[in-house]
Amino acid sequence: MLPLSAICLLLSAAQVRGIAPAQDATYDYIVVGGGAAGLVVGDRLSEAGHSVLLVERGPVSSGRWIPDAATAQMPFDNWRPEWLRGTNLTRFDVPGLAQYFWSSQANITCVDQPENPAACVLGGSTAVNSALWWRPPAKDFDDNGYPEGWNSVDMRDAIERAFTRMPATDRPSPDGTLYSPEGYNLVSAALAKAGWTNVTANQTPDEKNRTFSYANYHYRFGYRNGPMDTYLQTASARSNFALWTDTDVRRVVRDGGRVTGIEIEGTGRVVNVTSGTGRVVLSAGYFGTPKILLRSGIGPEDQLKVVAGSPTDGATFIKQAQWLPLPVGKNLKDHQVTDFQISHPSVKNYDWSNSIWANPVKSDLDQYLQNRSGMLAGPPNNHGPTRTNADFEKVAWETLEGSLFSDGTPRQIQWTTRIQNPGPPNNLLTLTSFVGRGSSTVGSLAINSNMTMSYADIPYFQTEDDRKAAVISGERMIAALKVNPEITFVKPAPDQTVADYVNSVPTNVVSRRGLHLMGTARMGTNNNNEAVVDSDAKVYGTENLFVVDASILPGMVTANPTGAIFSVAEKAVERILKLSSRG
Ligand SMILES: Cc1cc2nc3c(=O)[nH]c(=O)nc-3n(C[C@H](O)[C@H](O)[C@H](O)COP(=O)(O)OP(=O)(O)OC[C@H]3O[C@@H](n4cnc5c(N)ncnc54)[C@H](O)[C@@H]3O)c2cc1C
Ligand SMILES: *[C@@H]1O[C@H](CO)[C@@H](O)[C@H](O)[C@H]1NC(C)=O
Ligand SMILES: *[C@@H]1O[C@H](CO)[C@@H](O)[C@H](O)[C@H]1NC(C)=O
Ligand SMILES: *[C@@H]1O[C@H](CO)[C@@H](O)[C@H](O)[C@H]1NC(C)=O
Ligand SMILES: *[C@@H]1O[C@H](CO)[C@@H](O)[C@H](O)[C@H]1NC(C)=O
Ligand SMILES: *[C@@H]1O[C@H](CO)[C@@H](O)[C@H](O)[C@H]1NC(C)=O
Ligand SMILES: *[C@@H]1O[C@H](CO)[C@@H](O)[C@H](O)[C@H]1NC(C)=O
Ligand SMILES: *[C@@H]1O[C@H](CO)[C@@H](O)[C@H](O)[C@H]1NC(C)=O
């Protein structure tokens, strides 16, 4: 752990004015969670002049927030490789180190959801993700179960704000070169020949049917450049913004529909919001937020009973008369994934996952350290479809029309590719299909009596329609790739049908997850008690409790979700600020 003295040093550093709050300090807004959405919310609320306390459970990640990072001891040993010593960077800042997440997750992932590798550090999963950054297409709002006020026309300015703050690039290396383009070249050439259209995805976000693109990222200047380098920078320059890291919020303190403050795990300390007008915004992510809601007496009765009967919370849990029965944890969505695989002599592996830490390629390292350019300035790999292990890059999208499915709902497919693990024959390319918008709920979250969160109702591909979407998209992709006779098909094997192959892949989480979970505190009209928050992101039945993060997105999106999550956060803040101060 970061020694306490280092935390105090951090919080009194010039950039971060907020000190751990004084005993009696109150705040207009307390934002819980410093991830994708929370950093947007904290910045925009403080920009509007309100006093804001942002409470993040994890440690600092980016070197930007570690005072004297070049010489300081890191919070944990796995925060930076030797070759970054003397710089102001950690693993979280260097694009090429993203893949190392799959080799070393200690003290990064959240201990209370062991099934899922989300990051509980400052920045949330944006500290470790692949920085794929897509402007959401109109249909992600218009055809996805949002209430009035959240259509694509309503979202336009919010999306613009997010993409102005964090611009997208398809040239991650500042020298403008595309490194290691073999995978992109192979697949895109075949798709072009098969009649798919070459687009620059973020210029034409609505063209998502038989299109392909270079991948778009929010990398900049050779750095990750996520919300910690943008939103948090402006927020922390304001005297009315305070950040408290290494602090786990246990629950909100509430009396009926009125929330008076938050309670910190461990110490039991309470921090109040401004009396009468203050508000709490939960931005703790798709499982962190439901957990806090459940521990605050908000959720399905069976789940609240687990909390009420738990050794940790039972004795002090809010009285049953005050429970609010909302569908917290339901409607868990994810991209549902199937890996296909081909091989081709042009595909060359690069060892992103292991030697990158201890022994990176010398010329690539020199190029990064001297010029912040080259292989390490981009994701593993830079662009287009080349990647080891479990990170992804975009190739293509296809929209399958509703008439193909018994429920009449179109299914949106996204294709990404990656180079397979190191080792002979080193020329395998995996193509991953994500069944997205239009697909079914995969399950719900459940709280255990030890306050861990687990999945219920998983496996993936529970409906025949979703399975069919994976089969049809696979058949079409393979047909397209067959224009190149040099491509060898590995999965499915040449003598196996696509349907047989898709059905042979296990439907468990590890084999089929997209790492894009959402929907567990969904926004909506509450006619059938199917939503948790209203169109102002306010929790039903409360006066001043809000949720702004991936949990409120009602339906799965087209592409990797942060573009949509940041846009939703921008919009939600705009609406929250317009609400009258009481209620
Ligand atoms: C390995 C990986 C790769 C990914 N790649 C991409 C990609 O390339 N592009 C893309 O668009 N998406 C990607 N994603 C998904 C994306 O990162 C997430 O969807 C997004 O970060 C979710 O945003 P959020 O604000 O809802 O939650 P998070 O970003 O997870 O933030 C939640 C924050 O709340 C904090 N918190 C939780 N509980 C508490 C508590 N009780 N008290 C205080 N703080 C708390 C957490 O520590 C965390 O910092 C990836 C995800 C992973 C795991
Ligand atoms: C928070 O407010 C409550 C009243 O709502 C009060 O009893 C309590 O002392 C306050 N706590 C702090 C730490 O200010
Ligand atoms: C590191 O320092 C350089 C030069 O001062 C600066 O431009 C860059 O933004 C810093 N990066 C981080 C992640 O702090
Ligand atoms: C993770 O944290 C624990 C507890 O502080 C520490 O003992 C361990 O060395 C850390 N692991 C790494 C890889 O840094
Ligand atoms: C697609 O368009 C981009 C940008 O114009 C171009 O660089 C790339 O080579 C094109 N790809 C194919 C396969 O034509
Ligand atoms: C860094 O950039 C300069 C200027 O383009 C170039 O001369 C030098 O070779 C680069 N260094 C490395 C290690 O690539
Ligand atoms: C996608 O494009 C294909 C080929 O042009 C077309 O047949 C199909 O109807 C389109 N899908 C949708 C949902 O428009
Ligand atoms: C918590 O409880 C769940 C469900 O009973 C169990 O699977 C898990 O191992 C427990 N975790 C810990 C850390 O005790």
Rounded to an integer, what's the Rg over CA atoms? 23 Å
Mean pLDDT across the residues is 91
- Contiguous low-pLDDT stretches (5 residues minimum) are 1-18, 382-392
Strand content: 15-25%
In which order are the strands of the major sheet placed?
Answer: 4-5-12-13-14-11-17
Shape: globular
Number of H- or I-type helical stretches: 14
Binding site for FAD: 121, 249
Signal peptide: 1-18
Domain Glucose-methanol-choline oxidoreductase N-terminal: 27-337
Keywords: FAD, Flavoprotein, Signal
Structural overview:
This protein is of the alpha/beta class. The chain folds into two domains: 15-133 and 226-332 and 519-578, FAD/NAD(P)-binding domain; 171-214 and 336-438 and 461-507, Cholesterol Oxidase, domain 2. The protein is built from 14 helices and 18 strands. Helix 2 (36-47) runs parallel beside helix 14 and helix 11 (464-481) packs across helix 12. It is globular, with a radius of gyration of 23 Å. The model is unreliable at 1-18 and 382-392 (pLDDT under 50). It binds flavin-adenine dinucleotide and 2-acetamido-2-deoxy-beta-D-glucopyranose (7 copies).
